[in-house]
Structures are given as structure tokens and as C-alpha cells.
Design a protein that fits this description.
- The complex is a heterodimer of chains A (383) and B (237).
- Chain A has 383 residues and is α+β, with helices and mostly antiparallel strands.
- Chain A has two domains: 175 residues, no CATH class; 191 residues, no CATH class.
- Chain A is 49% helix and 19% strand.
- Chain A has eleven helices and twelve strands.
- Chain A has a six-stranded mixed beta barrel with strand order 2-3-8-5-7-6. Chain A has a two-stranded antiparallel sheet with strand order 11-12.
- In chain A, helix 9 packs antiparallel against helix 11.
- Chain A starts with a helix and ends in a 15-residue tail after the last helix.
- Chain B is of the alpha/beta class and 237 residues long.
- Chain B has a single domain, classed as 3-Layer(aba) Sandwich (Rossmann fold), CATH 3.40.50.
- Chain B has a six-stranded mixed β-sheet with strand order 6-7-8-3-9-10, sandwiched between helices. In chain B, strands 2-1-4-5 form a four-stranded antiparallel β-sheet.
- Chain B starts with a helix and ends with a strand.
- The chains are: A alpha+beta (383), B alpha/beta (237).
- At the A-B interface, helix 1 and helix 8 of A face helix 2, helix 3 and helix 4 of B.
Chain lengths: 383, 237
């Protein structure tokens, strides 16, 4: 007889056992489902948190940003003087450059007083938002693109936002996703509009200095090369690529590290729960497995039966987790917009499935240790 | 219409069901050697029901385990239905057990999460997988054993006697040449024990299947064709 026959037997045995112990296996699947849900939710929360803090940097168009060294890669702390700006622009390999300014303002939106971040860019394509979902970019004075998720708070398309004090009126002409900064409603404007906002809020201010200089490399120069050249050539300048600017923003790395510890713990709990469950089940049914071995069932059939059960439990458990996560992933948690993360779902599904299968190896080892002769003594493995 | 037993009878081989020649089984216990079976020689006919009588620890179960391919002998030869299994490795022995012999063990005999019918079918599922033929055979065996109305019951829903009858049915599922019964009545009261022995004899004879009934109960010999005694690993056929 072919070896394929025991495969049917393995599935037959696995499904019959699961059917007769639905509560037990159901609870395990539910537990795995809840853990997967928590992992995916935490992953989305992490992304949402980081996006709400530095989405404006991640989703602006400049490939390289140049801070002042003492700004410590913080838009609010960095100030580029005109002297520094001239030196930066003069570095060989700079193709184009533009100022970016940022400030936090009190504004009235939807008849409520709230705070908002305004980011002004001098040159379209060097600091303008890249995730426009409706309307258009700001071109004229008094026009802004607002964070789409804050539309319900008076930042919707066509709404007027008033800078307080000063009374400067800003009209929302476009909406972009994931452009939050410091977890505030964020507005992208032209640089002159940003300057007007600064002067409206603080009439004593003499000028609105840029926080960073956005630069793009000249043809033949890479982003990394340009970063190195600026940092070598201009003391006091701290050039970084867009991705590095996001990752090195104060607080981002700490948030990521905290979440990584949580992920590590969850990543260990799922295989641990799965492995222990199947080890206990295997020990509990030791006498049945011994009987089947005595009746001529090959070890491989029993192992396949076990692995089939583990796979089925993991697939259904992960499925439950994704099913719970999907509706929640489209919600907004406070001011943090969540989003369904396909990459995280695929990655965690694969990682947890593989780890879960590996965790069952202890139970597999137990099955392989069964000696059919024990059927004659009534003993089983583990006894 | 023919029964499963009659079909079996028509195909009955004439060669002995079991031949053991000079079989020894020695266990190592530290530096010492313990002889569990000492040069056992026996032959059991194709439809013979034999009682193997002996006190606890005499080597009954060891002999039965070697005959059923659960244990390899230290020396000697074992031939079942013309098939010499002496040198078989674990994989071939598993296949041999799956296809050639039937077992009814003393303690655990049924898988608790399978119904009576599924306990019969699991042998086929893990082996030849003949599908409908197996299902028909399982139904017929359960009917012959008076368990047709209990086929969908789990072992926990059956009485001790019913469980033993299911085990007998399971041992016959693969149409074995030899069925090995290890203390089949030890967990049953006297009346039920006699009923089970009567059933074993009837089923074996109707199918022309050989059986070895391991026991220490002298009353069982009334239901067998021949009695062999074993004491301290030495067989007195």
C-alpha cells in the first residue's frame, strides 16, 4: 500500500478528535485569536502613534532634510539661519533647495479653539504633502492642506480655520492622509502663509525662520551621498534622509522599542500556549496513541495527525484574530488614525504559524517515543 | 447472502496460522539478563483457538507480543500465515500488525474519542483504506456482535461487555489470520466473561481464524481447542 493512505487516516483521526473535543480546541483557537488580535492591534497602534507624531515628515516630498545640529532633529528646536542656509545650498550635489518652517498655533476650527501644527514649504515638491486624497495643494496665500482624519473637527475640505490670536483665516483646499505632526491636526501651507501665521500669532516677531532646509540631489548624486557631503562641508548642519529623519525624531525610537518588547512577549506567548496545549493533549491521549501504534498505525501517521491539528488550530486562531482586527483597524483611536496593515498581518500570520508549528515539536517527539509494546501493559508515553 | 465469516472461510489458507521455533526473549536489567521466554516452540492451526495459561510474569504476554509483531525475539523464528517476521524492522512489523493480525488487549482497547464504528474503521483508515468495503464490513461486524444500535456511541457510553465486543470487532476488521487476546475477560464479571469467551470462540470458528487467548483463568480453557501452559518463560505445549 502507498504511504499516502495514512495521510487520510491522519486527517480522519485529527478531525474526529477535534469534533469530540470542540470546547477544548475551540478555547485554544479563541485564545490564539485574541492574542493575534492584540498583536495586530498593537502593531497598528504603534504605526498610528508614530504616524500621528511624524507622519508629516514621512509623507512630505523632500528626500533630504537639513536641521541645525543644536535642533537635535526636532522641527520645533531647529532654526536655520540665513548664513547656514547659504552654506547648505552651496554644497556640490544640491540640485534644489527650499525652506520648511513649522510652528504650533492656537486655531479656531469648527467653532472650537484647538491647537494645530502648520508646516510651510517654499517649493512645491520639496516639503509638500505626498498623500493628497482630495482637493489640491495650497498655492495661494491663506490656503492649506489639512490632515484628512481631522476633517470632522473643523478641518474638512472648504472649512475655514482661524489662527488665534491675529485672526488669520486659512481655507482648507485639500486633504492628505497620515500627515500628522506631534499628534495635532496638521496643516500644510506655502511658506508665505506660514510666515503670515507666525506674524499673526506673534506680531512682535521679526521674521519666521525656517526649521529645516529641504534639499533634493542633483542628477548623478544619491540621497545618501548628498547627506554625507552636506554634513562634511557645513559645520552646524545636520542632514538626514527622509527615512532617517522619521526614525531619529526624538521619541520615535523609544516608542518603537517599547512596542518591540510587547511584540516579543506576545510572539513568545502564542507558541508557548500552542506547544503546551498539544503537549498536554498528547500526554492525555498517550494510551490511545499507543493502542493505535500497536494496531499498526505508523508513527508518521500519528505525527501527521498532530501537525494537521496544530496547523488547523493556528490557521483558525489566526483567522479569528484577523477577523477581530479588521473592523477595528479602520477606526480612529482618540486622535490616532488606525489603518489595516496588510504587511503586518502577513508577517505576523507567517511568524506565528511557523513558531506554533515549531512549538509542537515537543509533542511530536513524545509521539515518536511511543513504543507499541506498551499497549500490552496498559502504559503509555510519559508514564 | 454470505456473511463476512463465510467469505473468509472460503479463502481460508491451509498453512498454520502461527509457527514459533526456539523463540527466546532476553531482557537486560543492568548487568543481569532476564529470560522472559526460553526456547518456545509451538504451532497453531489455521482455525485453532488456543488458551495460553500461566501465572503473572510467566511470559504469556511476551510470547503473544512476539507472535503479534509487537516485540522482536532475541533468538528463534516466528512465522505467521507463512510470513516469516523474524527479521522485520519496526516499519515492516507495523505494516504486518496492520494487515495480518488482530489484537484485543487487556486494558486499553478503544480510542475514547472515536465511536464504536469509528474504532473499527480507524484500522482501515490507517491502513489499506478500502472505503465503502470497510464501512460495510464494520457495519456487518457490529451487527453480528449485537452492537448495530450502538455504532455511534462513544466507548464511555458503552458497558464493559459492549466495549469488549467492539474490541473483538476491531480485531477482525483487517481479516486477520491470527487474533491475539490478552486477558480478554479480566475486567469482566464471571457471567460476562463467559459470554465474551463464547463470542470469541463463535466468531473465530465462523471465520476460520486462529486465536491465542492469554489468560490465568482456568475456566477459559473450556472455550478453546487446546491449552498451553507457560511457567517462568518455559512453554509446555
Amino acid at each position: 500500500m502507498s504511504d499516502r493512505y495514512p495521510s487520510y487516516g491522519a486527517v480522519f483521526l485529527a478531525l474526529k478528535e477535534m469534533r469530540r473535543a470542540l470546547v477544548r480546541f475551540g478555547l485554544l483557537m479563541a485564545s490564539i485569536g485574541l492574542l493575534v488580535f492584540l498583536i495586530l492591534f498593537q502593531q497598528t497602534l504603534q504605526t498610528g502613534l508614530i504616524t500621528s507624531f511624524v507622519g508629516a515628515i514621512r509623507h512630505q516630498s523632500a528626500p533630504v532634510l537639513v536641521y541645525s545640529v543644536d535642533g537635535r532633529r526636532n522641527l520645533q528646536g531647529s532654526i536655520i539661519t540665513s548664513d547656514l542656509q547659504k552654506k547648505i545650498v552651496a554644497v556640490p550635489g544640491v540640485g534644489s533647495a527650499g525652506e520648511i518652517g513649522q510652528g504650533s498655533f492656537s486655531v479656531t476650527a469648527g467653532s472650537k479653539l484647538t491647537s494645530a501644527a502648520i508646516i510651510g514649504y517654499q517649493t512645491e515638491g520639496l516639503g509638500s504633502p505626498t498623500t493628497l486624497v482630495s482637493g489640491r495643494l495650497a498655492h495661494a496665500d491663506g490656503e492649506v492642506v489639512a490632515l484628512a482624519s481631522s476633517a470632522g473637527d473643523g478641518f474638512g475640505l472648504g472649512d475655514t480655520v482661524v489662527v488665534q490670536p491675529g485672526g488669520l483665516k486659512l481655507r482648507v483646499v485639500g486633504q492628505a492622509t497620515e500627515i500628522g505632526y506631534q499628534a495635532s491636526p496638521t496643516l500644510f501651507s506655502t511658506y508665505p502663509t506660514f510666515e503670515q501665521a507666525v506674524l499673526a500669532a506673534n506680531p512682535d516677531a521679526r521674521a519666521a525662520l525656517p526649521a529645516v532646509i529641504a534639499v533634493a540631489p542633483a542628477p548623478g548624486t544619491t540621497d545618501a551621498e548628498l547627506v554625507a557631503r552636506i554634513n562634511d562641508a557645513v559645520p552646524g548642519a545636520d542632514a538626514v534622509t527622509r527615512a532617517d529623519a522619521v526614525a531619529s525624531t526624538p521619541g520615535v525610537a523609544q516608542v518603537q522599542q517599547s512596542f518591540q518588547v510587547i511584540f516579543l512577549l506576545f510572539g513568545l506567548v502564542v507558541p508557548l500556549v500552542t506547544g503546551l496545549f498539544f503537549l498536554i493533549v498528547t500526554l492525555q491521549k498517550a494510551s490511545s496513541l499507543t493502542l493505535l501504534r500497536a494496531l499498526g498505525a505508523p508513527s508518521s501517521a500519528l505525527v501527521r495527525s498532530l501537525l494537521f491539528q496544530v496547523s488547523l488550530v493556528l490557521v483558525i486562531g489566526i483567522g479569528i484574530g484577523i477577523a477581530l482586527y479588521t473592523p477595528l483597524s479602520s477606526q480612529t483611536l482618540g486622535s490616532i488614525p488606525l489603518s489595516f496593515q496588510t504587511g503586518a498581518v502577513v508577517l505576523w500570520s507567517v511568524v506565528l504559524f511557523v513558531l506554533g508549528l515549531l512549538s509542537a515539536l515537543v509533542a511530536v517527539r513524545r509521539v515518536l517515543r511511543i513504543d507499541p509494546i506498551e499497549a500490552t501493559t496498559g502504559a503509555g508515553l510519559g508514564r | 447472502m454470505t456473511t463476512v465469516g463465510q467469505e473468509q472461510e472460503q479463502e481460508q489458507p491451509t498453512r498454520p496460522a502461527l509457527e514459533m521455533v526456539g523463540v527466546r526473549k532476553v531482557y537486560k536489567m543492568g548487568d543481569e539478563e532476564v529470560v522472559a521466554l526460553d526456547h518456545a516452540t509451538l504451532m497453531i492451526g489455521a482455525d485453532e483457538v488456543v488458551a495460553l495459561l500461566g501465572p503473572s510474569g510467566s511470559g504469556k504476554t511476551t510470547l503473544c507480543s512476539i507472535a503479534g509483531g509487537l516485540l522482536a525475539p532475541t533468538a528463534g523464528s516466528v512465522v505467521v500465515g507463512g510470513q516469516d517476521i523474524t527479521g522485520y524492522n519496526a516499519k515492516r512489523l507495523a505494516k504486518f500488525r496492520q494487515e495480518t493480525v488482530g489484537f484485543v488487549f487487556q486494558s486499553v482497547n478503544l480510542v475514547p474519542f472515536l465511536t464504536a464504528r469509528e474504532n473499527l474503521l480507524v484500522v482501515d483508515q490507517l491502513g489499506r483504506r478500502t472505503g465503502k468495503a470497510a464501512r460495510d464490513r464494520a457495519d456487518q461486524l457490529l451487527e453480528e456482535l449485537g452492537l448495530a444500535d450502538r455504532r455511534d456511541n462513544l466507548p464511555s457510553q458503552l458497558s464493559g461487555g459492549q466495549r469488549q465486543r467492539v474490541a473483538i470487532g476491531r480485531s477482525l476488521m483487517n481479516e486477520p489470520l491470527l487474533v491475539l487476546f490478552d486477558e480478554p475477560t479480566s475486567a469482566l464479571d464471571t457471567e460476562l466473561g463467559e459470554q465474551v469467551m463464547e463470542l470469541i470462540r463463535t466468531e473465530m470458528k465462523s471465520r476460520g481464524t486462529a486465536a491465542v487467548v492469554v489468560t490465568h483463568d482456568e475456566r477459559i480453557v473450556h472455550y478453546t481447542d487446546r491449552t498451553m501452559h507457560i511457567v517462568d518463560g518455559v512453554l509446555h505445549a
